[in-house]
Structures are given as structure tokens and as C-alpha cells.
Amino acid sequence: MKFALVGNQNCGKTTLFNQLTGSNQHVGNFPGVTVDSKEGLIQKRQDIVVDLPGIYSLSPYTNEEIVTRDFIIKEKPDAILNIVDATNIERNLYLSMQLMELHVPMVIALNMMDEIRENGTSIDIHQLSQELGLPIIPISAIKNEGVAELIHSVVEVAKEKRYPSRIDFCSGPVHRAIHGISHLIEDHASAAGVPPRFAATKLVEGDQPMRDELHLTANELDMIEHSVLEMEQELETDREAALADMRYTFIEDTCAKVVKKKGESKSYLRSIAIDNVLTHKYFAIPIFIGIMLTIFWLTFSVIGAYLSDVLAIIVDTITLNVDQFLTNAQINPVVHSLIIDGAFAGVGSVLSFLPIIVVLFFFLSILEDSGYMARVAFVMDKLLRKIGLSGRSFVPMLIGFGCTVPAVMATRTLSSERDRKMTIFLTPFMSCSAKLPIYAVFTYAFFPKYQGLVMISLYLIGILIGILGGLVFKKTAFKGKPVPFVMELPNYRLPGLKSVMLLMWDKAKDFLTKAFTIIFVSSIVIWFLQTFDFRFNMVDGSSSMLAAIGKIIAPVFQPMGFNDWRVSTALITGFTAKEAVVSTLAILLGTSPAELPNLLQTIFTPLSAFSFLVFTLLYTPCVAAISAIKRELQSSWMTLCLILLQCSIAWLFAVLIYQVGGIFL
User: Fold this and answer.
1) For residues 186 and 262, what is the distance between their CA atoms, to the nearest angstrom?
2) Model pTM?
């Protein structure tokens, strides 16, 4: 059987999905973490559960709502597992009422009951179940409480095809409109495979996709419009407000009977007290910058730097021992060079920066799981509106600091197509984690006393370029106003150790996968091109195929302060993966990870090194990110424009920094 896991954003769906399936999907304490459906087998069973994106209604305003709605209507799951946040039960039940109209067997998982108990609040589960006409199972997904009972209940409901016994919550004018339209379109709804009640409700709301799907005649559309206008005139309100009032009236009456509160919850009051400081009108942004500076200092100057140095020594020792073994075994010099100068130099140079990435994401995961990142999006709304975006666009941009691919996918949470495309164009300016090895090796080589400061300056430059780009775009390619910003601010919570460790492992696994696949292959290719000439004779680097190609491109970078073919070649390999820039430089300079910073000082000055860093920050993202951008934009032309735009901006600002800096230094 197949079950659909549906609920509001940030209600614990992905946590429950992990408990049901034994998966390790990333969980975050801010809305919009899940932007696509995920499938998994329930543990010890052959039943499938599908984790759908978090939504607040079944109206087709955002891509996630369309994904969820289409899945339930077209894929026809055996049952809906509706997860409801018990601490926000009134808001969450609004979606539940719409799901009940879909005429699919359904169970409500009332989540976060551990917090309800701590707050002294009580919920009469039995009476709530009777009021809604379906099974309700109290659970705590994070503590795995009640999950076994939930599985048993949803399986039974699906087997017996036990549908919600109550789907009619309306009265008066709304009742007459829905029921009249329901009878009118019954045959059309049946042909489209949609429950008449659900279809009628959507038509009352003015849902255009539902109109198109039902293939109604002009006469039927006129009759429907007449019924809706009659309802609006009688209630003196618009159609959507009438339906919302109907649902919330029922929810409020029901919650008044079953929920007994003892004041506001402790976590809510604690969150309000913390927000008085962290979302302060004047202090919020300085506090955020201060927190990020501290994280960068700990990552690049203290913890991460120390661990990276230790790993570099280990990699060098292994390389030296393998080199000695190959020499003693009198292995063919070409094979010897391939292993040491190709594979070990390329992969080893990148591996040593793994601790920096893991430590950085350890701190970022704590900020995310605590609920602080949702506040940053709220604080940034005012600033983003000035460049033509809403605060919701900050979430994809924030994810972009990790990886551009999921960041671009996260733009699906934006309801406006204009906002979505504009955010996709600006997100690649946010510095992804793949660039960290480049930053680490160059800051260590040229700015050892100011590593943290240089790092934060690079991130800020990316943000500032994004702001400038937004100001230009809103006057040119993406004219118009951003949609209003509404975002749930979750209560602050202590980050879970499992969640933090999971994110760290995900980033380490991604990094290691790249190191032993893309970077390994590109290292072998670079070694081959650098070792042989066009006649496939083994030559020194300056006479190789790679040197010939690199020397053609090198003059483009001369205004930035580096005219070395090895540097231009490294930047080209960065198109495959940004980490490949460091591995390519290590191969071309014929050095170990520990010695790479010293040899870079023979090619760059501190000013040209910073110019190089700015170029790597701003130029086009990797192939995987470009592929994701093309998929989301659904336009090869727009994707090509984005690539050319980023390369042009990167070249322009890198040249400006070097040329203007040269006047003063």
C-alpha cells in the first residue's frame, strides 16, 4: 500500500518520515525544508510512505501545493497520514478539513504531544476524533512515541477503506452554494476522478485549474458564478473569506470543546523573550553578523583550521609512504606519476579541507535547528523588499550557502513566478560550501592573521552583489512587486544531536563522494593533459597539451593580476566542481596539500590572490547547479544568460579590485 504524509510546513513530517522508514532525511526548524516528494518503505513492512512538501492549503498558489494536491488526486494513495502540530492545532486543522473532502481513507497523527504535556495543556483525543469523524493518534515523532500505533491505525484504515465520516462543516449560504454546485457538477467530477464535494469547494474558491479539469459548459459556469455571487452578497464578504470563516468557525468551536489550555506554553513565552533581543529593530542584523563572524573565526582560525592541518599531515604521510613503496617496487614512471602526481595530489589536496566543511555545518545546523534561521528570514524581509524580493526568498539564498542545487529547488516554495525566477538568478551569488577549500588554502597562504575577516568579507561581497543585481533586475528583467511575506516563526528548540550529526554526515558524504568521483576523474584528466604533448610524448608541464590550452585563455585573467596558464586551467576545471580548482592547482604545481600555500605565493600577491577569490566567488556555479537551474527555469536561453552574466560580473569585479587596489597598495 501507499500512504501520503501530508501536513503544514515545519510540523514534523520529515521527522516522522525518518521514524517510519529508518531514513536520514535532513530535518530543519524552519519552513520549506522539504520541497519535493520523498518515498520510503515503512520499517518491517512493504508499504510505501511518501513525504510530500509542507503546505497550508490545497489551493494552487505555490508549487508545493500543486505537487501535494496532484499526488493525492492523481496517484490515489491508499490512505492519507495527516500530521498535525498539536501546539498549533487550530491552524493545522484548516488543512485537515480540506484533506477530508478528498474522500480518501485518513488518519491524523497529532504530533508534539510531549510539548503539550510539558505546557500543562490537555487535548481530549476521543472527543476530537468523534467531532472530525476519523482516527486520531497522539504521537511525538522526535521521541518515537506512538509511531507503532500510528502505523497499525493507518494500515487498518487503508485495508478497510474507512473514509472520514464527516466532510460537511458548513451552514447557511456557504452550505447552499457548495451543495448546489456539488450536484450540478457531479458527472463532471466523476469523469475527472475528483470527489464532487472537493471540486465544488474549489470552484467556490475560484480555483482555475479545477475549472479547466472539469470541462464545464458556459451555461454551467454561469450557474456556478451566480450561486457564488448570491453567497457573497448574503454574507457581505468575498468567496475565499466565506470559506475560511466557515472552516475556522468549526475549528474554533471544536477546539473550545477538546483543548484545555493553562496559559501560554513555556516554549512560546521563552521564544518571545529571546525574540525581543534577536529580532530587535536595530540590533537584529548586527547580532546576526556577529554570530556569523564568530562561526567563521571558530571554523577557519581555531577548530576547523587545527583539524584541517592534522588531516593534511595524515594525507602527506600516506602519500609519502605510497610514493616510497612505488619507488622501491620500481613501478613504471608513468604509472608512478599517475598515482602520486595525479590521484594523490588531486584528491589529497581537497580531502584535507573536509574538517572545515564539517565544522562550519555543525554550527549552521545548530542555528537552523534552534529556529534562529527563520528569524533571520523575518529580519531580512525589509531589506529584501528594497531589491524587489520578499523575506521568503532569503530561505533559498540561505540554503545556497550550503549548495546551490537544493537552494534552486527551494525556490519552489515561492508563490510568485517573478520572485522565483529572480531568486534563482541571485542565489548563485551566495557562496556555496564547495568553494570553502579554495578560500581556506588562499586565506591560509596570504592572510593567515585575518582568515575569519577575509572569509566574512567574501560572503558579504556575494550578498552585496546579489543586492545590486536585485536592484537592477527589479527595474529591468523582473519588474513588479514582491508578494506579501507571511512566514511561520517556530518556537526556539534545543537542537537535536541526531539532526546536527546527520547534517554533518550528509555534508561530509557529499564532499567525499565528489572527492572520489568528480575530482578523482578530473585529477586524472588534468594529470594526463599536463604530462603529455599533442603527440603523446611525456613532457614537462610547460610543453604539455594543458599548457598550450591554458596559455590561450590566460590573457583574459591578466587584468586581475594573474597571467599564469595553470591558474586559468584551474578555473576552467571549476566548472565541473569548485573543489577541483584546488586539486588542479596541486597537480599543476606538483605539490602536497601542506606545501600548496607556499607555492601559491610564487604565483600570486596578496592583492591578486584576493582578486582570484572574488572571481571564484562570483563566476558560474558547477555543472550540477547549472543543470538544476535549467530544470527549474525550463529555459536553456535563460540559463545561458545566467552563466554569461555571472562570468561577466565575476570578471568585472575581480578586475576592479585588482586595478583599484593597485593604486593604493
Assistant:
1) 46
2) 0.69
- C-alpha 323/C-alpha 330 separation (Å) is 11
Cell representation of residue 194: 475528483
Beta bridge partners of 41: 48
Give me the sign of the Cα torsion angle 593, 597, 600, 606: positive
Q: Give CA–CA dist 33/374, Å, rounded.
A: 11
Tell me if 354 sits within 8 A of 508, measured CB to CB: yes
| DSSP label of 215 | T
Residue type, 658: Y
Whether the per-residue pLDDT at 28 is higher than 50: the answer is no
Locate cell 546536527: which residue? 500
Q: What was the pLDDT predicted at 137?
A: 93
- Residue 506, Ramachandran bin (φ over 0: left; ψ between -120 and 50: alpha; else beta): alpha
CB proximity list for 463: less than 8 A, separation 6 or greater: 429, 430
As a whole number of angstroms, the distance between CA 108 and CA 134 comes to 8
The alpha carbons of the chain give a radius of gyration, in whole angstroms, of 29
Query: 533 near 543, Cβ under 8 Å?
Result: yes
Element (H, E) at 110: strand 106-111
For the purposes of burial, counting CB atoms within 10 Å of the CB of 208, is it exposed (0-12), middle (13-18) or buried (19 or more)?
A: exposed
- Higher pLDDT pick, 594 / 432: 432
φ/ψ of residue 81, rounded to 5: -105, 95
Element containing residue 356 per DSSP (H, E)? helix 354-370
Residue length of the chain: 665
Smallest Cα–Cα separation from 403: which of 509, 521, 474, 525?
509
Looking at per-residue pLDDT, the higher value among 519 and 237 belongs to 237
Cell of 515: 572527492
Q: CA 319 to CA 325: how far, in whole Å? A: 10
Write out the H or E segment, with its range, that includes residue 287.
helix 284-297
Q: What pairs with residue 140 in β-bridges?
A: 145
3-class SS letters over 49-90: EEECCCCCCCCCCCHHHHHHHHHHHHHCCCEEEEEEEHHHHH
